[in-house]
């Protein structure tokens, strides 16, 4: 059975020096031929012996992406029993992603979560008795992918996609209503309106596509949440970490949350830091919602920074926080060490013991005076390099997947534009418009289902 | 007391558009078939609109014809006006629609039915389906006569517990006062079949002599008529056509409706059935599209020998006195004499996800169903299902695999797949937007797609099949020829090109390349394509379309290839989804309830995710 060719990053991306982009399928060799160049620029990998390693470079046209080692395996002697190419990349996360994107650009499709394993199984590479294990891989990877694609998608991106899809659907519904009931609905001259709508949607999509180059579709990196009771110094901590000399990658616009969120990079580590509402027992409904959100954010976080006010005795609000950080990766910050000490390190350790045997590291700081910030950074770095904290790698793949979807949406809309220019009949427009609608929906986890039919009936009066 | 009357192979319950196709198909497959109707005088009755075809419905009729069904031939015999809609659009959405002489339509169909070998018609109400060990054994009528049989096709249309309503007047009858089938619902429930209650409606009929046509716009048929049936040529069916008329509602009409809404059974809650959104009553339109100042009203003749005119666009269930005022507020209808009042009709139908794609009930072997009973609407949708249900009821007895058309083969495939896969909560109507491969599923190539299948089943005779093969070959040869035939950039060629608004040639080009230019057609190149032999029009049409839309067609064919992969992965009928490791609960419940026939069908069930499909694939492989 002929299958399309898939690609993905096969290694975890957090802290490995080398990562591997794997391509599998009928086109694997023809794709690698298009993007690989040997030192002498003469070697064609499709003509090399199976199970050999080749040194060279990955190119996107004239642009060199990375210096790599490529392993080629001809089916059926490969993991998936299909033709497989593995590219060992050396340039770190961003470059690896670029390599994957290049493979996609030249004809591969970003693999579904768990798809390599699925293919290995369906092609008989994995023993039938392993079915359950295979299913587990598929389910867990999908679970992560779903989490990352929905949680990590930036609110502003989501909003734009929803808006563009709505525009598209309205146009298709009009065309289809007119085709269905030409005696009631007249679409003569609609091309002009449609063309301007398509142009405007294309502009919006182009912008999204550009921004995706800098990873701005997804919140990549370590999701870090600052929590603590009110006035413990959470906001000062966030401000303190965002020093002037540090690049602020982006301020998140349009997030629907009332939590403050910033992205910072140090030593190649990307942190998404989120400040949350102070945790305290309250009857105020608005504040309760804030506290609930803080709790949700903390639950999805890769790392929690728990700020303790050392100038005030521990109270029931600290108990609440300690309860929900108990099994999570956390650093406890004893803040306000410039003031009179009311809470000692030992007090904290003792209090935490009530909830967990695990000891979270404690760092003394004064956010106000910028004391102890270097120690905090070192602590985070250590934890990262020692693999204690990591993050959902799937985000990177998802970003590439989303990017490919946006590209396909752009291609489809360009096809509509061309059809309009060529004077094709209206029914051809809606085919490509619907495809754009569908692929963009994949980004925000929406399917097509009965959307079009519902739209037609709700907006247009038709029928006998 | 119940007693055995006569045994048959196939019993068809109902003689509407679905029932007729079902009965004819089964009888033509050589099976002893009996068709029951509540009235011999209402065979293939058109109780609502007086036309066949229209957007996507026209496609269905041509497909029915290509498979060896009767509807296309019957409308060709009895049409009084014919039009190809959407002629300015792409060929995929060209839609053939014909006004019928309703009386003739019934009469002609009755002639065919009564003269078909192996087919018996009986006026009787079927009240019970007899089932033993999950298998159909026969039907029983109101008079307690038992007809043992091997398969049953239910085509009860809108007759099950039918109730007609307008204002506070309500009658437990079928359309036009015909008696309803009041007992069968109970028998179906006892068999564990889940029933829905749907609603539809029809406008008033008005005496032609009371209409002032000078206030309306006349609408003519096409000069050159395209037949529905592939067995007919335009010349075969050429005739004098009648006109339809267009007028509009106005603010006055809407005021009358709005001030009487409280008397509408739709709004008072007296009607419980779910109505179709695409065919709203005029009161629905006025409420839902409040900002529209006027709605179109089409005045269509019901036949050549009657003065009754159908008032399209103004179906209603308002009380009689309101209807009187409402219709008379429309320009040209000021003095209208209403012959039949508008009414709404409620009826029992089924949740069609209880059916297999073959239209056989999953739970009851040998029981098939088609038409409005399955929750669809429209004569054409009904006929299409009736044909498939009849074919499969026959094939089952003959020990053959059922005929299942998929979404890439026919609108019929889309229709049935939607019905049995997606639970519909309103009468389902075909639309071209529901067909994802509509560039391939054109009305012009229905014969190319389906004649072979019809022949294989045994509904297309040798003579017709030979003709089809000859046409297919002509198309193929001409496509090959124009790809090779070249013309140079000489003065004669360029003169022709320029005369047709096309860029002149510098060097040579093939005829095919020229046809692919948007502004040119096969016909325009006659003078410069010197080796051309005369070809029938329908062959030329195929050559044009195949070349002009080649890129799009190829793209869709590629998508179809992808689609077929999952479609061809069959799921065993007895699969216990509870045993499928790690399937999400929602997916498990949906799959368990619908029991899809293939992984492709499973993937179209709402609530089943791509990850669930992967899990299912792995599970099926490991069994």
The percent range for strand residues of chain B is 15-25%
Strand segment count of chain B: 23
Principal-axis shape of chain B? globular
**Main interface pair?**
A-B, 49 and 53 residues
CATH class of the largest domain in chain B: Alpha Beta
| Helix share bin of chain B | 25-40%
What is the arithmetic mean of pLDDT of chain A? 84
Structural class of chain A: alpha/beta
What is the structural class of chain B? alpha+beta
- Rounded to the nearest angstrom, the radius of gyration of chain B is 26 Å
The fourth-level CATH homologous superfamily of the largest domain in chain A is P-loop containing nucleotide triphosphate hydrolases
**Low-pLDDT residue intervals, each spanning 5 or more residues of chain B:** none
CATH overall fold name of the largest domain in chain B: FAD/NAD(P)-binding domain
Q: From the alpha-carbon coordinates, what is the Rg of chain A to the nearest angstrom?
A: 26 Å
Helix content of chain A: 40-55%
């Amino acid at each position: 059975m002929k299958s399309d060719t898939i690609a993905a990053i096969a290694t975890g991306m957090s802290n490995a020096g080398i990562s591997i982009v794997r391509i599998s399928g009928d086109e694997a060799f023809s794709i690698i031929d298009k993007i690989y160049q040997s030192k002498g620029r003469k070697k064609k990998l499709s003509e090399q012996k199976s199970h050999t390693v080749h040194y060279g470079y990955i190119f996107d046209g004239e642009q060199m992406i990375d210096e790599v080692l490529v392993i080629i395996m001809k089916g059926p002697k490969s993991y998936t029993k299909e033709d497989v190419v593995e590219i060992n990349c050396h340039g770190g996360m961003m470059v690896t992603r670029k390599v994957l994107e290049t493979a996609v650009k030249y004809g591969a499709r970003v693999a579904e979560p768990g798809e390599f394993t699925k293919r290995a199984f369906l092609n008989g590479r994995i023993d039938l008795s392993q079915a359950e294990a295979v299913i587990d891989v598929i389910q867990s990877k999908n679970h992560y992918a779903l989490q990352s694609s929905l949680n990590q998608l930036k609110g502003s991106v989501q909003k734009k996609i929803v808006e563009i899809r709505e525009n598209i659907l309205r146009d298709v519904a009009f065309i289809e209503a007119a085709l269905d009931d030409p005696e009631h609905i007249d679409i003569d001259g609609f091309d002009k309106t449609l063309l301007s709508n398509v142009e405007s949607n294309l502009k919006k999509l182009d912008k999204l596509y550009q921004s995706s180059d800098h990873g701005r579709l997804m919140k990549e990196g370590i999701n870090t949440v600052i929590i603590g009771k009110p006035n413990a110094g959470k906001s000062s901590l966030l401000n303190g970490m965002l020093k002037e000399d540090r690049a602020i990658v982006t301020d998140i616009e349009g997030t629907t949350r009332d939590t403050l969120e910033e992205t910072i990079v140090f030593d190649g580590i990307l942190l998404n830091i989120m400040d949350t509402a102070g945790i305290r027992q309250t009857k105020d409904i608005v504040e309760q919602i804030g506290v609930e959100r803080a709790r949700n954010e903390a639950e999805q976080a890769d790392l929690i920074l728990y700020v303790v006010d050392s100038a005030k005795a521990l109270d029931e609000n600290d108990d609440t926080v300690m309860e929900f950080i108990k099994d999570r990766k956390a650093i406890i910050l004893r803040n306000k060490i410039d003031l009179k000490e009311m809470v000692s390190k030992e007090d904290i350790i003792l209090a935490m013991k009530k909830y967990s045997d695990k000891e979270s590291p404690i760092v003394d700081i004064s956010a106000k005076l910028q004391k102890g910030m270097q120690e905090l950074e070192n602590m985070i770095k250590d934890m990262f390099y020692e693999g204690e904290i990591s993050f959902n790698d799937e985000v990177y793949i998802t970003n590439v997947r989303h990017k490919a979807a946006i590209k396909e949406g752009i291609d489809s809309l360009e096809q509509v534009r061309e059809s309009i220019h060529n004077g094709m009949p209206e029914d051809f427009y809606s085919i490509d418009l619907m495809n754009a609608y569908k692929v963009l929906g994949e980004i925000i986890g929406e399917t097509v289902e009965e959307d079009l039919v519902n739209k037609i009936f709700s907006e247009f009066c038709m029928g006998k | 007391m119940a007693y055995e009357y006569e045994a048959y192979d196939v019993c068809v319950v109902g003689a509407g558009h679905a029932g007729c196709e079902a009965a004819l198909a089964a009888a033509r497959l050589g099976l002893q078939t009996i068709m029951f109707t509540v009235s011999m005088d209402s065979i293939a009755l058109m109780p609502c609109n007086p036309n066949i075809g229209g957007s996507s419905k026209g496609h269905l009729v041509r497909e029915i014809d290509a498979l060896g069904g009767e509807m296309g031939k019957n409308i060709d015999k009895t049409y009084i006006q014919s039009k190809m809609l959407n002629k300015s659009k792409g060929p995929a959405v060209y839609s053939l629609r014909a006004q019928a002489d309703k009386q003739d339509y019934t009469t002609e169909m009755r002639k065919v039915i009564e003269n078909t070998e192996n087919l018996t018609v009986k006026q009787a109400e079927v009240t019970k389906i007899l089932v033993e060990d999950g298998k159909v054994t026969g039907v029983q009528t109101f008079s307690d006569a038992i007809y043992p049989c091997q398969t049953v096709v239910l085509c009860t249309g809108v007759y099950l517990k039918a109730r007609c309503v307008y204002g506070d007047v309500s009658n437990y009858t079928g359309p036009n006062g015909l008696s309803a089938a009041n007992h069968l619902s109970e028998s179906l429930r006892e068999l564990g079949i889940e029933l829905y209650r749907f609603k539809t409606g029809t406008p008033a009929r008005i005496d032609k002599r009371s209409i002032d046509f000078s206030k309306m716009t006349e609408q003519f048929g096409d000069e050159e008529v395209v037949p529905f049936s592939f067995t007919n040529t335009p010349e075969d069916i050429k005739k004098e056509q009648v006109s339809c008329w267009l007028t509009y509602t106005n603010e006055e009409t809407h005021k009358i409706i709005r001030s009487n809404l409280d008397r509408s059974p739709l709004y008072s809650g007296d009607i419980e059935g779910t109505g179709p959104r695409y065919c709203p009553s005029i009161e629905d339109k006025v409420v839902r599209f409040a900002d529209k100042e006027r709605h179109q009203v089409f005045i269509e003749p019901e036949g050549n020998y009657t003065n009754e005119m159908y008032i399209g666009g103004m179906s209603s269930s308002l009380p009689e006195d309101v209807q009187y005022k409402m219709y008379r507020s429309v320009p040209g209808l000021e003095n209208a004499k209403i012959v039949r009042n508008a009414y709404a009709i409620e009826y029992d139908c089924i949740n069609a996800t209880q059916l297999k794609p073959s239209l056989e009930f999953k739970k009851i072997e040998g029981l098939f169903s088609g038409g409005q009973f399955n929750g669809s609407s429209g004569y054409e949708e009904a006929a299409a299902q009736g044909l498939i249900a009849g074919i499969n009821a026959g094939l089952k007895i003959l020990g053959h695999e059922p005929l299942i058309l998929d979404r890439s083969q026919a609108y019929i495939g889309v229709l049935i797949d939607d019905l049995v896969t997606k639970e519909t909560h309103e009468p389902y109507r075909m639309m071209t937007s529901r067909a994802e491969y509509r560039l391939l599923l054109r009305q012009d190539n229905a014969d190319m797609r389906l004649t072979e299948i019809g022949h294989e089943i045994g509904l297309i005779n040798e003579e017709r099949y030979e003709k089809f093969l000859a046409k297919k070959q002509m198309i193929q040869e001409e496509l090959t020829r124009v790809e090779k035939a070249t013309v140079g950039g000489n003065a004669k060629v360029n003169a022709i090109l320029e005369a047709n608004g096309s860029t002149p040639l510098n060097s040579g080009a093939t005829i095919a390349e020229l046809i692919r230019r948007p502004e040119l057609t096969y016909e325009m190149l006659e003078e410069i394509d010197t080796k051309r032999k005369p070809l029938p029009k329908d062959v030329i049409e195929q050559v044009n379309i195949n070349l002009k839309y080649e890129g799009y067609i190829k793209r869709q064919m590629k998508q179809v290839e992808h689609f077929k992969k999952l479609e061809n992965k069959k799921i065993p009928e007895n699969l216990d989804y509870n045993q499928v490791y790690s399937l999400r609960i929602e997916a498990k419940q949906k799959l368990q309830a619908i029991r899809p026939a293939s992984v492709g069908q499973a993937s179209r069930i709402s609530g089943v995710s791509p990850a669930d499909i992967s899990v299912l694939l792995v599970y099926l492989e490991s069994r």
